[in-house]
Structure formats: structure tokens, C-alpha cells
Amino acid sequence: MALSTASLKQKLENELKAQGFVLDGEFAMAGKMAEAIANAVVDEITQNAQVPVTGGSSSGTYKVS
């Protein structure tokens, strides 16, 4: 499964709306906050996450891309 900032942003926005945040309107900033969080999470995972494979001929630690 590929990481997607757009998909994560949409999920964040849906959760924020469910909690009562306002995402629409001239002064609404929750949508921008959701986008910033999504970008940061995807960047962190793609830059630093590693997956350990503990058995087989492919055993080792691999970077998430």
C-alpha cells in the first residue's frame, strides 16, 4: 500500500469534522492543519521508517519508500 498525503488529509479532515471542527469558511484553518499534519506524517515515514524482515533469504531491515 502506497502512502498518500491526499488520502491521509481526507481522513484527518473527516475525523476533525466528526469532532466538531469547522473546515469551511473564510477563517477556518482546520483544513490547512490537516494538510500540514498529513505532509509531516508521510515525510517522517518515508524518510525514517524501517521494516524488519526476520526470516528467509530477504532477512534484514529495509527502508520504507
What does this entry look like structurally?
The protein is an alpha+beta fold and 65 residues long. It contains 2 helices and 2 strands; from the N terminus they run H-H-E-E. The chain has a two-stranded antiparallel sheet. The protein is elongated, with a radius of gyration of 16 Å. The model has no long low-confidence stretch (mean pLDDT 91).
How many beta strands in the DSSP annotation?
A: 2
Query: What's the tally of helices?
Result: 2
Based on secondary structure, the structural category is alpha+beta
Give start-end ranges of low-pLDDT stretches: none
Instruction: Report the C-alpha radius of gyration, rounded.
Output: 16 Å
Strand content: 5-15%
How would you sum up the global shape? elongated
Distance between the termini: 10 Å
Give the neighbour order of strands across the main sheet. Answer: 1-2
Q: What is the overall pLDDT average?
A: 91
For the largest beta-sheet, the strand count, sense and barrel status come to: 2 strands, antiparallel
Which quaternary structure do these chains form? single chain
Order of helices and strands: HHEE
Can you lay out the helices and strands and say which pair or pack?
Layout: H1 5-18, H2 30-48, E1 50-53, E2 60-63
Antiparallel strand pairs: 1-2
In short:
51% of the residues lie in helices and 12% in strands. By secondary structure, the protein is α+β, with helices and mostly antiparallel strands.
